[in-house]
Amino acid sequence: MTQFTMLDKETHRNTRIITDRGAQYGENIHLVPVIADELATLILEYPVCLIKSNETGQFGLQALLGFEAEENLYLDGDTWHANYLPLHIRRQPFMVAVKGAEGEQPTPENTLITLNTHNPRVQEQTGERLFDEQGECTPFMNSINDMLATVVSGMISTESFIKTLTTYDLIEQVHLNVSFVGGEQKRFDGIYTINETKLQQLTPQQLSELNSKGYLQACYLLLASMGHVQKLITLKRKRLSNA
Q: Which among 88, 104, 148, 183 has the fewest CB atoms less than 10 Å away?
């Protein structure tokens, strides 16, 4: 359940945020949205792919955490087994809202911070305070402000990156056929990545354009990250064998 309200230093003077990890905080998910700015760090830990929205038909960047709904193979109780947590996970339970017409692009000037007051992280007994006794932002809240600013700018650059991939027809679907315990075979669809052959066939001018925007490196980072699918398979087999 969600109930977002605009963050206010008077209303939320005593509000605290629990920063622990766990399924009880909504972290048992198999896909998490990410931004292109995170790719260089994400690919050290996660497979990162493109997922098409069933509602809009638009592609978005997502880190793959598991193979089934409500399955995060990196999460074990209150421990997240990775050195880097995606911004979307760390920014919870905050959200950026746009002050403007529906569909308007978020910018640092037209956005405000909202808080999901129904999130189990939000309470007044323990955790990180948002405001001090003088009503000023705490260091924790300042870090959230910086994080959300990165998310806003990253959403815009990521959309531009994906639009370019679509223009050059560089997106292709990947079919994962995985063997688990007992020889059980499963096929996972709906995952997309970069078509390496088409990428290599681009003209020198097109490659130069991609490179100048940092998109060429991002393409190869996406391709490299898919090697972590094997890590997920290993984690999944281990979890099934311990069940």
A: 183
